[in-house]
Write a structure and sequence with these properties.
Blueprint: E1 2-6, H1 7-14, H2 20-29, E2 36-38, E3 47-56, E4 59-68, E5 74-81, H3 85-88, H4 95-114, E6 117-121
Parallel strand pairs: 1-5
Antiparallel strand pairs: 1-6, 2-3, 3-4, 4-5
């Protein structure tokens, strides 16, 4: 399983680097069968949002991925604490989530177009 990271989203969600603990959470949550599909508006054609739950040393996390249907790679959108306004209510009914989702989808699209993405391949790692 590969996780695609937009460099601009990476900076917003993690700062400059992903800690070993947060990387471990990503490895545990980057499993399509464990994630819950959630609805989203304005998504790219043939895509779906997935919400996963993980626990880091800093507390419970909500991880939101974009999955292109028919693919296996996940595009990381959000990595938030349970008490964060987006992490607490990752739903299109939450106006803040909706606003940030559209902003992050635009950032992801721009970074893909500009080649500003990184990949983490968890298929060979023992998380």
């Amino acid at each position: 399983m590969k996780v695609v990271l937009s460099r601009r989203i990476l900076k917003r969600e993690f700062g400059r680097t992903i800690s070993v603990d947060d990387r471990s959470v990503l490895g545990r949550t980057a499993k399509i069968v464990l994630a819950t599909p959630i609805s989203g508006s304005g998504l790219p054609a043939g895509s779906q949002l997935l919400k996963a739950y993980g626990t880091a040393r800093s507390g419970p996390k909500r991880v939101i991925y974009l999955l292109m249907v028919g693919g296996e790679d996940l595009f990381l959108l959000f990595y938030r604490g349970k008490n964060d306004p987006i992490g607490a209510n990752a739903s299109v009914k939450n106006p803040l989530f909706r606003k940030e989702l559209h902003k992050y989808l635009t950032l992801l699209e721009q970074d893909i177009r500009d080649g500003e993405i990184d990949l983490i391949d968890f298929s060979d790692e023992d998380i």
